[in-house]
Design goal:
single chain, 11 helices, 22% strand, globular, binds adenosine-5'-triphosphate, binds magnesium ion
Length: 265
């Protein structure tokens, strides 16, 4: 299992405007961290720096004491998997089967193991009957599931989901969240990038980005008590807490119930 450290990381696309500013984060093995932030707050840029698709101007990403660089990128890819927001950017193969195999092929996984993994993960995400189809004929949500199967099959220690459930219908999203919970229980480290506060409720810890800076970094319970910090970052609280905060003469037992039900994941 892997530990992830982001040390004083800053990034700019243009050389002028800083998109990430001195990001400092330590993610322990087996933690589930939600990274929340408004559109444009730098979440995807951070994800790309973490997996080595973008190179920061300063600071570093360290995975298990290995500093991310051109030399270590291949080794680090074996440890960190990422699923992006837009599944169209994740397709290369002629069939769905090829696409699920792609990441495993890059890791040099033996053929027989690959075949059984493709079946297993296609089944897990509900695309088994689509394995011989052309990826371009799939819906957005189906493509997203294929991308997820391909990454899960790589057996990385850390998974980064960048708005990965945005294309899924509520049923598929719920199924996926259940499965991610299983993986987390088995020890996988999860970084879930989202602007959906309800999705962040599955996490142990919430990190809020605002204007490329860490605006809040706290346990889920603590973060949700910091109503003002959340609002400042343009985030809404979960429905249950909005009711809790909005109704002044609420019965104490209801208050207790609403607070507890928020965390009932
Ligand atoms: N390739 C690029 N070149 C220049 N600027 C970019 C590029 N990609 C993103 N940006 C800018 O960087 C900032 C952060 O973008 P990023 O995609 O990291 O935000 P985000 O938090 O993931 O937003 P969203 O919630 O919309 O996905 C934005 O202001 C965006 O315009
Ligand atoms: Mg994004």
């Amino acid at each position: 299992m892997s530990k992830l450290e982001i040390n004083d990381l800053s990034f700019t696309y243009t050389g002028k405007r800083m998109i990430l500013k001195n990001i400092q984060l330590q993610i322990q093995k087996g933690e589930w961290v939600a990274i929340l932030g408004h559109n444009g707050s730098g979440k995807s840029t951070l994800a790309k720096c973490i997996v080595g698709l973008l190179e920061p101007q300063s600071g570093s990403v360290v995975v298990d004491d290995m500093v991310l660089s051109h030399k270590t990128a291949y080794e680090i890819r074996k440890k960190i998997g990422i699923v992006f927001q837009n599944p169209d950017n994740q397709f290369v193969g002629v069939t769905v089967r090829d696409d699920i195999a792609f990441g495993m092929e890059n890791l040099g996984i033996p053929k027989d193991q690959m075949i059984s993994s493709i079946d297993f993960y296609a089944e897990k995400v509900g695309v088994k009957e689509m394995l011989d189809k052309e990826p371009s004929t799939l819906s957005g949500g189906q493509k997203q599931r294929v991308a997820i199967a391909g990454i899960l099959a790589m057996h990385t220690d850390v998974m980064v989901f960048d708005e990965a459930t945005s294309m899924l219908d509520p049923y598929a999203r719920n199924e996926l969240m259940q499965y991610i919970q299983e993986l987390h229980q088995e020890g996988m480290t999860i970084l879930m990038i989202t602007h959906d506060i309800e999705e962040a409720l599955y996490a142990d810890r919430i990190v809020v980005l605002k204007g490329g800076e860490v605006h809040l970094d706290a346990s889920k319970e603590e973060a949700l008590r910091q109503t003002e910090r959340m609002t400042e970052a343009g985030l809404e609280l979960p429905v249950s807490l909005r009711i809790l905060n909005g109704v002044t003469n609420l019965d104490p037992s209801w208050k207790e119930y609403l607070w507890a039900s928020t965390f009932d994941k």
